[in-house]
Design brief:
The chain is mainly beta. It has strands spanning about 1-5, 10-15, 20-25, 35-40, 45-50, 55-60, 65-70, 75-80, 90-100, 100-105, 110-114. Helices cover about 0% and strands about 55% of the residues. The model has no long low-confidence stretch (mean pLDDT about 95).
Length: about 110
Amino acid sequence: QVQLVESGGGLVQAGGSLRLSCAASGSAFGVNVMAWYRQAPGKQRELVATITSGGTTNYADSVKGRFTISRDNAKNTMYLQMNSLKPEDTAVYYCVAFSHRTDWGQGTQVTVSS
């Protein structure tokens, strides 16, 4: 099992930036794809971005050009740099690790005020 701990969430004004971090521990070896998901109040959880161990990335259309996902394999840490934040980015953001199983972090709240 992989333990995932997110940090970096908070309250920011529209147009501002935040950087989320996700520290992985436990059976981190064998994790290929990592991802950020988010869930806004009253909405379904949605995929924000993914990154493979080789660094290939994919983004939801709603965040392309504004968010950047990255990972430091040596530190077992993944990041999400979020720029030009909008009120509709308000959500709980979750870190996810895909290996032979799927592990989720506890989530970190991001609130963007207008």
